[in-house]
Every structure is written in structure tokens, then in C-alpha cells.
Amino acid sequence: MTTFDMALIQRGARLRRSPYFDATLRAGCRAYTVYNHMFLPTRYDDLHAEYERLRTGVTVWDVSVERQVEITGPDAFAFTNMLTPRDLSKCAVGQGKYVLITAEDGGIVNDPVLLRLGENHFWLALADSDVLLWAKGVALNSGLDVRLCEPDVSPMQVQGPKSKEVVRRLFGEGVAGLRYYWFAETDLDGIPVVVTRTGWSGEVGYEIYLRDGSQGMELWDRVMEAGADLAIAPTGPSDIRRIEAGILNYGIDMTLDTNPYEVGLGWQVDHGQEGGFIGREALARIAAEGPRRLLAGVEIAGAPLDLNMTRWPVWADGAGGEGGEAIGFVSSAVWSPRLKRNIGYAMVPMPLAELGTRLRVATPDGDREAAVVRKPFVDPDKDIPKS
Q: Are 228 and 166 in contact (CB under 8 A)?
């Protein structure tokens, strides 16, 4: 069997490989990207075929690149609560939360899934950025007694409507029946894991956080065996499905230069909480004044487009690509086979973010008409992943 030649993209040992890496090669992974200094498998098959497997069956993703920042110590709660504008007093032990980490000007440093393993024990499952360094910098002069590290924790995602049956076979009814964004600490015949009812797909899904990297291949094989008769298959994370679901990708749809209100995540900011958090004053000011721009949902006319590899310039309708300076950009866009149209996100000035506003987008195939529409494009109440 021909396998992907990693020498095409790797020089030396700086880029790390996950505990499941050899399994992804064995499964015929055809493309990787670099994420949090590691290899992230992105494709095994045609991307539309992988999307259909996710929608109708069950898929497995090696997402060990979701590196953890572990926060412990007597002041771990106070410190973690300071990192995020979301009030963690509302997060119970055994519960997870999607949170933002904000800078002093309100910019978004990261958007991890937070897990509360104890009163003063937290994991931050990270998007692509060096949050451990950020957290160490914050801790340095905080006066708080905390310990910060990257633990030996390597998540995989099991996603799709048949994922619940796979998890039931592996861990039993109690784990399979977890509520959305709750988790269980357990083991699989001695393989220590944390299983969460979370995912990046908009579908029913789980993440299995391996707590011993030496057992990665064993865990992978056990998961694949449990779903063999369900046609379980490894895939990369689906940009098609996550855009349909209104899920944002850090580093693309939001960055340090954007704030929660610009990207539709103002609900993450708990202004009334007792504790202070980094960026509190700036975010209060932005909330009072209102954001000047907004990441809007858009439909782009014409034939199917591939996922954009760069930001595409946006003009107000009638301005034309050569008629003046762009007023915004498309951060993510892709063809939705289900909706039979091109969908995505465009960062535009607030006056142009009204539903129905006509825009023009410079795509690789030439300028196209576009319109501002509601997002999420599919299942706005998240009934699917909560089911």
C-alpha cells in the first residue's frame, strides 16, 4: 500500500506526531496540515464523500493537535476564571464549556473547550495558538498559586449519527448517554480516557481524550473494531459540515484582531460576574458602543466553489472588484451539497451586515454576487448534536 511521504513536508523533529499517527498512515491519509506544532490529518478520501459519511454514519478524527493546557493548584479556579469572560462559577465539576480567552483589548486569543475535572483542576483543549505561553505570562505576575503544563492527553473525535452506538459498545450506556458538553473519566480495559459529549461537526459526537500516549494505537484499533459493522471510517474534520453548523475556525474566522461581538459570540461575555477577567473594560466599552463590523453569513452565487485557501475580498454591490478598496473579506466559504449553494462567512461593516444586503466577492473564478443570510445555515438550535 502506498502511504503519504511525510518527507515532503517535514524537516527534523520539530513537528510532532500524535499517538495515532501510524494508524492514520496505515489508513491511507492523503493530506496533513500543521496545527499546534503537530500533524493534523485532513483528508483520506474525496471531501464530499467524507462529508456524507459524517452526516449518515460514523467517522473518527485524529485531533491530538487539540493540545491541552492543564491548570491546577490552590488558585486554579480564580486564575482560569480570569482568562475567560465566561463565568466559570456556572461550570460544575464534570462539565465542559465552550469558552473564549481574551486579551486586554478584547481580542480573541483562543476559543478552547474547557473541562472542569475538579474544583481547582481544568483542561483547555486548544485551537491553533500558543496558549500555554500566554497563560504562563499571565500567571507570572498574577500573585496566584497555580501550576501550568501540557499533559499527556491526546483526543480523538468520534462523530456522526452512529457515534452513540460506537461509544455505547466501548464504554456502556452511562457514557453514551452523557448530556451535551458533559464528560466522564473512565478507562477501556486499562486504557485511561476522558470521554466528552462534544465535537466540531454539528452532528452527534464524542471526543475520547487518551491519557497515556503509549496506548494510542491500541485505543485507535479498539474504536475501529467497535464500529466495523457500522462502516466506521477515519476522515479529516469537515469544513463543509462545520460551516453549515455555524462553527468558527480560530485563525481564520476569528483572530487576535477580532473581538467576541464582531464574530457573534457576545453571549460568551458575562459582564455581571463578580470576578474580573482580562479584557473586561474593553469588552464593556465595545458592548456599549456596538461593534463596527460583523462576521455575517453569506451565500455566494454560481457554480460550486472549493474551500477558500485565502481570504477573498468583498465589495458592496455595484462597487466592482476594480472600482475601489474592498470593504471586507470572506474568511470561510464552501459548497454545501445539502443546500446546493455556496455558503460562508464575510467580515463586513455593520451597515452591510443586514440580512438581504447584496455584496460582490472576488473568488478565484472571478467576481460573484453574494447576499447576507442568516447563520447557522443548518440546525440553528443545535438540536442534532444535543440529541
A: no
Confidence of residue 11 (pLDDT cuts 50, 70, 90): confident
User: In which residue are the cell numbers 466553489 written?
Assistant: 305
Distances (CA, A) of 281 to 4, 110, 285, 334: 49, 19, 6, 37
Average pLDDT over residues 71-78: 98
Nearest-CA neighbor of 199 among 254, 128, 125? 125
Instruction: Please compute, for residue 57, the number of CA atoms within 13 A of its CA located in the half-sphere on the CB side.
Output: 17
Q: What is the rounded distance in angstroms from the CA atom of residue 96 to the CA atom of residue 185?
A: 13
Structure-block grid coordinates of residue 110 = 483562543
Instruction: Tell me the per-residue pLDDT of 278-323, one tens digit each, with 9 for 90 and over.
Output: 999 999 999 999 999 999 999 999 999 999 999 999 999 866 555 5
Give Cα separations from 375 to 14, 242, 298, 379 (angstroms): 39, 12, 8, 9
Label residue 325 exposed, middle or buried (CB < 10 Å: 0-12, 13-18, 19+): exposed
The β-bridge partners of 234 are: 60
- Of 254, 239, 264, 265, which is closest to residue 329 (Cα–Cα)? 254
Torsion of CA 263, 250, 387, 216, to 10 degrees: -170
Whose CA is closest to 40, among 248, 215, 249? Answer: 249
pLDDT tens digits, one per residue of 33-55: 999 999 999 999 999 999 999 99
Write the DSSP assignment of 291-331 as a string of letters: -SEEEEEEEE-SS--PPPSSPEEEEETTT-TTSS---EEEE
Distance CA 255, CA 228 (A): 39
Question: What average pLDDT does range 355-380 have in this prediction?
Answer: 97
- Angstrom distance (rounded) from CA 225 to CA 228: 5
Q: Pick from 261, 286, 254, 277: which is nearest to 87 by CA?
A: 277
Q: What is the C-alpha separation between 60 and 117, in angstroms, rounded?
A: 24
The C-alpha cell that represents 210 in the structure block: 487518551
CA distance 21 to 181: 27
- Structural contact between residues 371 and 191, judged by C-beta atoms closer than 8 angstroms: no
Which among 26, 19, 68 has a CA at the least distance from the CA of 218? 19
Angle at 267 between CA 265 and CA 270, to 5 degrees: 125
Distance of CA 37 to the CA centre of its chain: 16
